[in-house]
Write a structure and sequence with these properties.
- There is one protein chain.
- By secondary structure, this protein is mostly beta strands.
- It folds into two domains: about 80 residues, Glycoprotein, Type 4 Pilin; about 70 residues, RNA polymerase II/Efflux pump adaptor protein, barrel-sandwich hybrid domain (OB fold (Dihydrolipoamide Acetyltransferase, E2P)), CATH 2.40.50.100.
- It is built from no helices and 16 strands.
- Strands 1-2-3-4-5-6-7-8 form an eight-stranded antiparallel barrel.
- It starts with a strand and ends in a 7-residue tail after the last strand.
Length: about 180
């Protein structure tokens, strides 16, 4: 079994291949934009529905995985990651998010809004909290800006990749 996904960590894009051999050994092959490949062997086991444990370099990790079509949402060590299954007929990565529009990282429920319309926000600031797979995930601002519109309220159920709010990007003066 082998699946290929695209991943963008904000600085660089990767192609990630997950492979399981006939002995149920798992391998992660990471290919960067520079065509460098690195293969990592991991030992993995299923803990429950969407819950996994894997060992990498003698360190044990637990993660949650949710699936929405060709997208896998992974919660690992307090961070959320999104992997998109590669369309075999397309070589290039697709941009899925309009600049200035903030989309939901995964399906879930909005448990807390931390900003209001009109608020000035800074890059890295917590904007809202989404509960998914019994875990709370903070959505943070990708840049400095002003909240122009919030599309949901606390308690609303959301789907993956829907716009949550519109932010107008602005340049803020550096503070010492």
């Amino acid at each position: 079994m082998s699946e290929t996904f695209n991943f963008d960590d904000g600085n660089q894009r990767f192609e990630v291949r997950l492979r399981r051999d006939e002995n149920n050994e798992y391998y992660i092959i990471i290919k960067t934009q520079d065509d460098e490949e690195k293969e990592i062997q991991v030992t993995a086991k299923v803990l429950g529905s969407g819950q996994f444990q894997f060992t990498l370099d003698n360190v044990i990790y637990k993660c949650s995985v949710a699936k929405d079509g060709d997208v896998r949402f992974i919660h690992l060590d307090g961070a959320d990651y999104e992997l998109r299954k590669v369309n075999e007929f397309k070589e290039e990565f697709e941009e899925t998010e309009d600049e200035g529009s903030l989309s939901s990282p995964m399906p879930g429920r909005i448990v807390k809004l931390l900003v209001k319309t009109g608020a000035n926000i800074k890059k890295g600031q917590d904007l809202l909290v989404v509960e998914a797979m019994k875990m709370e995930n903070k959505v943070i601002s990708p840049f400095n800006g002003v909240v122009k519109e919030i599309f949901f309220s606390e308690g609303d159920q959301i789907e993956a990749n829907v716009p949550l709010m519109e932010i107008e990007q602005i340049d803020l003066p550096e503070t010492a």
